[in-house]
Each structure stands twice: as structure tokens, then as C-alpha cells.
Amino acid sequence: MNEWAVKLQMVNIYIARLTSSTYVLVIAPPGEAEFNCLKLNVQMAKEDFVKLDLTGELPRGERGGSRVNGDEKGKGEVGGKAV
To answer: What percent of the chain is predicted at pLDDT more than 70?
Structure first.
């Protein structure tokens, strides 16, 4: 299973596989535009999770995803390891 979705009148539910051991569950407001947006956001995040799974390091840079533990320069701790 790579993804699973339920679209109801009151809510959209989406589950996607990010890596071999990581899944994401998203609950969002109803609507086709909202659903397509959440799928796109999950796909963008998946690229970073795959890199993290393969390298063990957090990706930095392009989309401003360098903020870790409140430090805007990307210096902090993840799992007790300095990054």
C-alpha cells in the first residue's frame, strides 16, 4: 500500500507511505482542492523523508526546511545527535 484515501462530506482522510518504515496520516477539511493540496504537500515531504531514510541526515536548504529545534540556522539536536 502506497496511499489510501477516504473523502467524506465532513472530512478528507489520507494515509501515505513515506519510506519503508514511515507513514503519514493527514486529516483535512472536505473539498477537492484541499485534497489535491495535501497530496502535493505529502509528496514534497516524501522526498526529504527518503533522503533522511537513506543518509540519516536531515535535508537542508531549498524549501526552508532547515529549522530544527527552534534554531533557524539548522543547528540543533535530533535524537541526541547534533545536526
So the answer is: 67
